[in-house]
Amino acid sequence: MSPTPDPARLAGQQVLVLGLGAFGGGAGCVRALLRLGARVTVTDLRPAERLGEALDELAGLEVETVLGGHPPELFQGQVVVVNPAVPPGAPVLRLARERGCLLTTQVNLAARLLGRRSCAVVTGTHGKSTCAALAAHLLAEDPRRPVVLGGNLGGSLLLQALEAPPDARFVLELSSFQLERLEAPHGWPECVVLTSLSEDHLDRHGDPAAYWAAKRRAVAFQDAAGSLCLPAALPAARIAPWQKEAPGRILWLGATELPTDREGWFLAGDRIRERRGGDERELAPAAAAPFREPYR
Fold first, then answer.
1. Is residue 136 located within the same domain as residue 252?
2. Claim to verify: residue 142 and residue 93 sit in the same structural domain
3. Does residue 96 sit within a domain?
4. 94 and 126 fall within a common domain
5. What is the rounded distance in angstroms from the CA atom of residue 231 to the CA atom of residue 211?
6. Does 98 share its domain with 136?
7. One domain, residues 96 and 136
8. Residues 41 and 131 both lie in one domain
């Protein structure tokens, strides 16, 4: 992936959106790029009759569409925003590079726009949506600062980043498809949460090691001020690369009592406890939690 362009400098530039996608993400990205002043073209392998609602969302916008294929003459050295569904080895990406295009993603543009704003990234094989939604719900209990829930949940993260108030906190669910090409500012994100880690999407990534490496891109740009939350129940060999690559503080989430050298949150009998900075305290009875079965 190329270095991420500054979204603020896209005004007047040609930008190609490669893959319209579904769930409003591609159309929302187009709207965000237009708001930034870019001149936008959308291309998708699918013909118009298969894009239905996604095309309806572009109605009335000043955007060119090239559908049913990616003709080589479309690539003229411009910025190309690649949909997560496009595999890294796709021939169209090689063509774009050969023609001098700068490849990026919507997540990368949003991360560049968000910079040092408060942001937590939630990833994992299972439990991402639940964990992200619950985190956003808990943060929203503090009404002083708004909370934005986004990422792999539908809609456009770039548009959310543009529209959110300056003091908003972001909770983002990001998939391996979104993370494998991540290029972010130094220190982003402030916090990463791994919910679980098993084998998945091997048709895309090839083998478990590549899939797990894609997930670990979440911590690749953090600094010493960042934090990483890990499930204590994961096998040591599977979690060791995360411990090695994370530059900041590591916190643990355990369904049983944590070893004394680990900080985080855990169950001790029928009580939820927190250990931070050498201090330990009881937070609540386990029965007070709104769920019982942890994700594995």
1. yes
2. no
3. yes
4. no
5. 18
6. no
7. no
8. no
Contacts of 23 (CB under 8 A, 6+ apart): 154, 155
Q: Rounded to whole angstroms, how far apart are CA atoms 245 and 229?
A: 13
Does residue 95 form part of some domain? yes
Instruction: For residue 75, give both structure tokens.
Output: 């690539």
CATH number assigned to the domain comprising residue 153: 3.40.1190.10
The strand order across the sheet containing 191-194 reads 147-151, 169-173, 119-123, 191-194, 227-231, 249-254, 264-268, 271-276, 279-285
CA distance 114 to 148: 12
The phi and psi torsions of 249 (rounded to 5 degrees) equal -75, 140
Residues in the chain, overall count:
296
| Same domain membership, residue 175 and residue 93 | no
Is 2 inside a domain boundary? no
Q: What's the CA gap between 291 and 281, in Å, rounded?
A: 21
Q: Considering its fold, how many domains does the chain have in total?
A: 2
Domain holding 16: CATH number? 3.40.50.720
Contacts of 276 (CB under 8 A, 6+ apart): 251, 263, 264
**pLDDT tens for each residue of the chain, 296 residues long:** 678 999 999 999 999 999 987 666 889 999 999 999 999 999 999 998 888 888 888 988 999 999 999 999 999 999 999 999 999 999 999 999 999 999 999 999 999 999 989 999 999 999 999 999 999 999 999 989 999 999 999 889 999 999 999 999 999 999 999 999 999 999 999 999 999 999 999 999 999 999 999 999 999 999 999 999 999 999 999 999 999 999 999 999 999 999 999 999 999 999 999 999 989 999 999 888 766 555 43
C-alpha 55: how far from chain center: 24
